Amino acid sequence: FAGNVRFRLAPEQNNGPGGGGQQLTFLVADKTTLLDGLQVRHHQRERLVHAQFAGADFGHSVGIRRVAGEVKSAQTFDRDYLAEKVWQNTMIPAYSFVPPGISGYETRTTEYAEMSQIDREDAAKKVLADLSYGPDKPLKMEIRYNTSENHKNTAVAIQEQLKPLGVEVTLLNTDTKTHYGHLEQHGDFDVARAGWIADYKDPSNFLDLCKTGAGNNYSEYSSKEYDDFLAAGAAAASPEERMKNLSDAEAVGVARDLCVLPLLYYGFHTVVSSKLKGWEDNVMDVHPSRFLSK
User: Fold this and answer.
1) Is the full-model pTM beyond 0.90?
2) Percent of the chain having pLDDT more than 70?
3) Rounded to an integer, what distance in angstroms lies between the CA atom of residue 2 and that of residue 278?
4) Could you tell me if 246 and 229 are in contact, meaning their C-beta atoms sit under 8 angstroms apart?
């Protein structure tokens, strides 16, 4: 065994959807002052089964044309900038809802994942023009987010990114309880920020959020094709068949229909002494001390 294990609590803004609190940590994010005297074996960023996303409201009478404009505009969010500059590399750009790294599952990314940022913006401008939006008739969009300095900085960055497209963005900030209460009650919104930390390492923990009638289906997305793939996965005779159906569901609901707009994956930087054995990187970021030794 490793002997005595000391956990040190440290305040960390980037430790989950609420954006604040305490975190049990010997995981540090670019805090180089903590590296003195420590021989680094790992100092790498890994994806967690945590995701931050935005949603466009499918459930209210705002009009198909406007929703299409909002969704297309949201595709142009510069995720690399958000991850690197706003979140200081504690986040990873996301183009699928289910984070990569779940054994046996093939993530299905959005069609714009392989496009350059410039190409995404050009495509959005064309769609907005086809929908009769432009400098003389801008698309007006409100982005809701819950209180956190990083969430605020993210929303402001997105607001600036959409200006060249002729999209006028206003920001609405509320405390976390009010924000999620509004979403859970299916209140009206244009685009809203949300985050999800998986309860267990399985694609359904994410994909069920877009199922028709699900309590956390904030966008009120509904698709029989998507629901049928989820049902087929639940009834599958083998793990391989189940994962295939869930992957097909993500291809329909997320990659094609954008029931949610994947934005960022939570990530972590890990600093581990070369003397420590038994540390294995994993997407749940679970490292029981009873398996560690030196």
Assistant:
1) no
2) 74
3) 10
4) yes
